[in-house]
Amino acid sequence: MSIATTNPATGQVLKSYDPMSDAQVDAAIAQADRAFADLRRTTVAQRGRWLTAAADLLDAERDETARLMTTEMGKTYAAAQAEVTKCAAACRFYAAHAERMLADEPADARAVKAARAFVRYQPIGPVLAVMPWNFPLWQVMRFAAPALMAGNTGLLKHASNVPQTALYLEDLFHRAGFAPGCFTTLLVGSDAVDRILSDPRVRAATLTGSEGAGRSIAQTAGRELKKTVLELGGSDPFVVMPSADLDRAAEVATTARCQNNGQSCIAAKRFIVHTEVFDAFAQRFAANMAALRVGDPMDPATDVGPLASERGRDEIDAQVRDAVERGATVLCGGEKPTGPGWFYPPTVVTDLRPEMRIWSEEVFGPVAGLFRVSSYAEAVEVANGTAFGLGANAWTTDPQEQERFVTDLDAGNVFVNGMTTSFPELPFGGVKNSGYGRELSALGMREFCNTKTVWVGRGEATAGAGAHAE
Ligand code: NAP
């Protein structure tokens, strides 16, 4: 894949880059390694000041940065502005809370026959971040803010279609005060990742992306014995039960499916509706979806911009056509438009069957699959019936049913009477083929820390009865 900015609203290539050579990549890794030696010795308070400065720059530069993202990957300008603001808030969150998250945690010294025992969180070194284009700033920030606060350095291999946002991020952290090498953008294709991750100076990797990329990185990391965090795809269920507020559920379902032009890992993708309210929900949902305005992502009146790539649009078009050929019913949308740009209309398909691709694959665009179920048990069975387990949404006002969904849905997060989203305060991640490890919160910061056990004795010959040599 070439490294270039191509405007998805027009299909025009605006700027392209030569990939960095192996020698340039090696020099960048060496610099990240040297920068780590200094960064780890700075105080949390100092790093917090730099991250706060990054937040201030993000706020001040919100509109230009948002325009850049919209031009590179097609999200609406309003959504891009909100993404910049969210990134600034995450920087401030980690700047404010890292001291507590990284503080030594005392343990029961008597129980372990020590004078003192505690856990210390320390940075591990340069971490490779392989990131996707769909939230080009936020996906990187939710790795970078906690990683830099912990004292790690970051090497970013961003998606090949968002090079300017990638370069902006390096520049941002540099201007905020982090020394050269603390955060470096590597303009390389995915074929360079194996070599970078195999470098002994690179200590770990985080990937947000597809299952295929996850398998590839996990394979290299396994061979090299390196820690990874993988945030992969999802096909989140959105279950609607008879007690739900249908108007609200249909409204949120529309946003949950079409935000970011339908290209979100945590978008609701499968709408699983109890038969008692199926027709009423389907009618409201399809009407809402059909009413969305598709068009120029810079136009404030636009709800849904183009897909980020022609390949992405062809893929969802093929998934819809496959379902229709096998007997699915289209309630709205379903026709690939002609003309420039990679637009696709909000679409609802129902009468789905397991042999259709849409049943089990992730659909990365504004296309909703609508499933009819006749009981709680069947709703959970369909909801859990994919290889993914990222997020899950359940709509019910029955407190007991809410509790059962929380326990029974096999996903990294469950949102009841709402849509899945991410907050710096809450851990984020998946189970099954949606990946492993967690981002955000204190857990996200500690993924790339050495959780060091410290035991300080009184100098006796042994640790005492009950201790075992390992
Ligand atoms: P993708 O092809 O996997 O690309 C993501 C990143 O991985 C890009 O930087 C890409 O580089 C790189 N990459 C691709 N193949 C690779 C390989 N074999 N080895 C190493 N790196 C590789 O993903 P996408 O299709 O563009 O993005 C959408 C996917 O990301 C969806 O499945 C979505 O659900 C998932 N996603 C997950 C989360 C989450 O938090 N769980 C969030 C957002 C998106 P190039 O661009 O150079 O190919």
The profile of the biggest β sheet is: 7 strands, mixed
Gyration radius, in Å = 24 Å
CATH superfamily of the largest domain, by name, is Aldehyde Dehydrogenase, Chain A, domain 1
Strand content: 15-25%
Overall mean pLDDT stands at: 97
Under CATH, the topology of the largest domain can be stated as Aldehyde Dehydrogenase, Chain A, domain 1
Which regions contain 5 or more consecutive residues with pLDDT less than 50?
Answer: none
GO molecular function, one term: aldehyde dehydrogenase [NAD(P)+] activity
Protein name: Succinate-semialdehyde dehydrogenase / glutarate-semialdehyde dehydrogenase
Domain Aldehyde dehydrogenase: 3-454
Family: Belongs to the aldehyde dehydrogenase family.
